[in-house]
Amino acid sequence: xxxxxxxxxGLVVLEDGARRVDIAVDQGKIVSVGESSATADEVVDAAxxxxxxxxxxxxxxxxxxxxxxxxxxxxxxxxxxxxxxTTVLEMPLNASPPTTTPExxxxxxxxxxxxxxxxxxxxxxxxxxxxxxxxPLHKKGVVGFKAFxxxxxxxxxxxxxxxxxxxxxxxxxxLDALIAVHAERHETVHALGQTLRDSGRTDxxxxxxxxxxxxxxxxxxxxxxxxxxxxGRGHVVHVSSAEGLGSIKDARTRGVRISAETCPHYLFxxxxxxxxxxxxxxxxxxxxxxxxxxxxxxxxxxxxxDVIGSDHSPCPAADKAKGADDIWRAWGGxxxxxxxxxxxxxxxxxxxxxxxxQVARLTATNPANLFxxxxxxxxxxxxxxxxxxxGDPEREWTATKNQLExxxxxxxxxxxxxxxxxxxxxxxxxxxxVDGEVVGRPGEGQLIVPTHT
Length: 453
What we know:
Blueprint: E1 2-8, E2 11-14, E3 17-20, E4 23-26, E5 29-33, E6 39-45, E7 50-53, E8 55-60, H1 73-82, E9 85-90, H2 102-115, E10 119-122, E11 124-125, H3 134-140, E12 145-148, H4 162-175, E13 178-182, H5 186-198, H6 204-210, H7 213-230, E14 233-236, H8 242-253, E15 257-262, H9 264-268, H10 271-277, H11 290-301, E16 307-308, H12 317-321, H13 340-352, H14 356-370, E17 388-398, E18 417-427, E19 430-434, E20 437-438
Helix pairs in contact: 4-7, 5-6, 7-8
């Protein structure tokens, strides 16, 4: 038998454990897993490497159309390729217009098809005045709807109030559509932020003080109340606190259909790092103290977190630099799409004994299941897309600015030391990144829609 690709000799992370087996690929799909004698057009020697299912990053912001100077589809998906990410699920903001109407979906799809290096799906947006667009967007193939319970940071994506949230959850439940929320209580963060700014505080710690854990816990509780009444499906993005995860875990025991996400930056950095590094690590919710980070890790390791998404949210370098002496002036968002697997190798596998199978579940299998892609993506399984992230778990390296694919060339990860690196990324059998170079071409990425359509 002749095939397109044979990956030989790697430690392959399968759903039932990690084993040294060969993977045969033909016409973009996995055709065998095990010892293979097939003749292949290309053979990849994976000896000494870990072969993971390609990352399905369920939370990225590429901002195109409308704000491509912040980050466009080409730069964003080049970063994805460099990070072992084979599928991205892109958020409705900060594109302009945001993806809150069918017409905006079409505009974003046109931009993505022209420039994406890896495969992609699209989120729809839920704002105060677009309930009538939820069903058409669902039919277009969005993976879910994202809403903010506090100010989003941009005027063209307003937060959703409690009555509209309740109505949207009821509408979404009839479609079995997922609604995800940025969960911080608006009244709390607005009032605290105003008070601190009025007092003349411009230091970095003031940003953290303005967005306390309780604001996250209260917003999650409000979302859970509405979600339980609607009997719909919900997801809380970028949970930053162990307390927030605890509320979600409790709701699950009551039968609420809720999932939780956290991000690599909450698992890698602490408030001390934010104070030291500054605007490049400004985000909302903020990065918290070391004790909270350790408790987050405990929750991750015992299975309280469903997915880990990067929440990659870049901006022009000038919009970070202006916050050097006044943290309130900096745009909030961490450019991190290249660093999810290095963080999990370093802080998870090496420092905390995290199993490779759990890395695969959190970054690939679970997001594929949650967002309706599990028939094609998320696992090394016969018939699935041949999407792989090949990593050297022992490679020690330090992140540099030159390695960044992001447009603004700013990331809080610059200078961080890692043990574990992505060395090759394969999308549908084609190498898109190898040995430090993105080799995939713009336009090769394909739209992936969930099975509900």
